[in-house]
Design brief:
The chain is an alpha/beta fold and 224 residues long. It contains five helices and twelve strands. Helix 1 packs across helix 5. The longest helix is centred in the last third of the chain and has 21 residues. The two termini are 22 Å apart. The relative contact order is 0.17.
Length: 224
């Protein structure tokens, strides 16, 4: 591994997986994220020499060997608290988690029952934007975002990169068969000065390529 693609001695913070926003004791709002890509990136970062902290949503995945610390969370608010608690020591933040955009305004401590009045009306409130919050810090780590899009992938991803002032963004197309829960993936890597397509490959292989690209961009910024 070349000096430009290694992460030896670099502290990397990664969030991964979904968040679950509880409605009542038996129901929640969630998404299809498996956490596989984030965990593969954690493994690749360890292999590149990084000191890795992994904040994981509710996933059924073993901690990759060599990860220095894993913090398990359930909700977006818990993930935000865990990320902010760890980010001060991080050189790179890789936000792979599919954080829920909304949560219910009022959690019901009892199971919501069917009744003659029909389905309940759930009031939703917006969750904090963890990625944007980290990117707005001063000083801040090198910030890598992810975007899962169903259409106009590059266009939406470029807009997200600019809006959130990210250093790098990895975007992919998703539908019922591709991207979120599959064992392989393809990414469009976007940064302020350009882009690169990382072709479809098993997530472990794609993660190694992505980590090498992240390391190269990180070192280039540090040398600038």
């Amino acid at each position: 591994m070349s000096p430009e693609t290694t992460l030896a001695g670099v502290a990397v913070l990664i969030d991964a997986g979904p968040t679950y926003e509880d409605i009542d004791p038996v129901r929640f709002l969630g998404n299809r994220s498996s956490g596989k890509m984030g965990f593969a990136i954690a493994a690749a970062a360890v292999a590149a020499g990084a000191n890795v902290t992994l904040v994981a949503g509710p996933v059924a995945l073993a901690t990759p060997p060599g990860v220095a610390r894993r913090v398990d969370v359930r909700s977006a608010l818990e993930m935000r608290a865990a990320v902010l608690a760890a980010v001060n020591g991080a050189d790179i933040f890789i936000a792979t988690a599919a954080v829920a955009d909304w949560r219910v305004a009022e959690y019901s401590a009892r199971k919501i029952k069917k009744g003659p009045s029909g389905a309940p009306v759930l009031e939703l409130i917006e969750n904090p934007d963890i990625l944007a919050e980290v990117a707005a810090r001063e000083p801040r780590p090198f910030v890598v975002g992810f975007a899962a899009e169903t259409d106009h992938v590059a266009e939406h991803a470029r807009a997200k990169l600019v809006r959130k002032k990210l250093d790098l963004l990895a975007a992919n197309h998703v539908d019922e068969r591709v991207g979120i829960s599959a064992d392989d993936n393809a990414l469009e890597l976007i940064w302020p000065g350009g882009s690169e397509t990382l072709p479809r490959a098993p997530k472990a292989e794609l993660a190694r390529t992505l980590v090498a690209r992240i390391a190269a961009h990180y070192h280039a910024r540090a040398a600038a």
